[in-house]
Specification:
Layout (H helix, E strand, L loop, with lengths): L17 H18 L22 E15 L7 E3 L12 E13 L4 E6 L8 E7 L7 E2 L6 E10 L20 E5 L3
Antiparallel strand pairs: 1-2, 1-3, 3-7, 4-6, 4-8, 5-7
Amino acid sequence: MSETAPALRADSRPKRSSRTTAIIAIAAGAALLLGGGTTLAYWSTQQTIPAGTIESGDLNLALDGTPAWTLEGVLDTAPAAVADISAVTIVPGDVVTLEQDVTLTLIGTTLEAALVVAEGTVPDGLEATVTTAGVDAADLTAADNGSTVTVTVAFEFDPATAERENVNTTFDLSNVVLTLTQKSS
């Protein structure tokens, strides 16, 4: 008698027990919960610091009144008052000077500042220097807060200007910016 081979079933995959399937489902669910934003808790505590409040300071300048102009020619011994600065025609070596009252606001426990003419605002061919009466423009502190000081800005037409350089040139002083800047270490 011949033996025949058992017939192959259409589903040849081994069957899993329902217990194995349940364990796999629980493990997958736990993995999703742990990876889905939940965390394990550890002990912690906190206390509010009873420190109170602090405030920020202030740094400002305000122009007071109208400016006064003088012109000191290259051969003059003393500056002369100028009523209309736009009517002045300068030559190398001349110095036109602006005097302007400025009120300073300097509030800050450790604040130090300098009063200068902003870079790039002085026309080419002129040099500007800033001085103040009664305080050092380069070393202002909170002790100067509220002070009204006379700021002097001297514009010198470079005396080394040679040949025909800057002949018939208009120097626009209306774009010159006076800057009060906090110093950094």
